[in-house]
Amino acid sequence: MDTALLSWMEKSLRAPAMRAAAFENFSKQKAKQASHMKQRRNKSTEHGSRTRILDTAEALFSEQGFATVTTRRIASAAGVSLSALPYHFGSKRELLFQVLDRRLGQIQAERARRLHTIDKLEPGDPGSTRLLLEALLVPTFEMAQTHRSFTKLLGSVSIDPNPEVRSVMNEVFAKYPTGLPESFRKIMPQLSDEAFYWRYYCVLGAMVYIESDTGRIDVMSGGKLDFSKPLDNIEHILSFLMWGLHGSPYQKLVNS
């Protein structure tokens, strides 16, 4: 038989098998692409659900308190199933940790950045004290202008006596050390440890009360002042805190 004819016949016989193999390979590729697209959609959906839960928990915790808000209430308000909370966070305690962690990490990072940009700190120098106070306060007040519910939550959980809340606060702050307390201590060597830590504690107390956004300043001032733009009022706060930190050492009064 003619060689050319044999070659043509062999190719003709192989053609259906080749087409079948090509179709099978094409089908596998399409199935693989579809699987990848489904995985991306699932990840996107999971991310969206997780973010909604965090946003909802942040708002509810800030308005009603950690102990009062139930996981069922959070799931309902977030528009997710009740099982989504343990799936993403495991427990209500872990949910609170994640709510605090996602924004407090930003605040602490900005505090550390500001501290590292300070060229030199001089003991007893009001200018150095101001720089440290700005590093402590400004990141929080900047966050308050964009995520007010978070700073309100941060203020409320800072004074919450609930042992579970306290353990979360200690854990999340330990995750982001800034070096600020140590820096404040270095510029006030003339103070005893007792005097320094009480003064620094009062600074933190003032910050926490402002963060809590109780609305008291609106009431006390007859509506003339508010905390909607805390950075606009920071000079009043800095002036007060600087006097508190640099005031004369405490002396006990003795009755004559």
Automatic annotation (TrEMBL):
Listed Pfam families: TetR_C_30, TetR_N
Record Gene3D superfamilies: Tetracycline Repressor, domain 2 (1.10.357.10)
Entry keyword Transcription: yes
Domain HTH tetR-type: 47-107
Compositionally biased spans, kind Basic residues: 29-42
Keywords for this protein: DNA-binding, Transcription, Transcription regulation
GO MF annotation list: DNA-binding transcription factor activity; transcription cis-regulatory region binding
Residue ranges of the region described as Disordered: 28-49
Stored PROSITE patterns: HTH_TETR_2
Residue spans binding DNA: 70-89
Top-level taxon of the source organism: Bacteria
Alphabetical list of PANTHER family matching this protein: HTH-TYPE TRANSCRIPTIONAL REGULATOR BETI, HTH-TYPE TRANSCRIPTIONAL REGULATOR RUTR
Protein's name according to its UniProt entry: HTH tetR-type domain-containing protein
Natural source organism: Sphingopyxis lindanitolerans
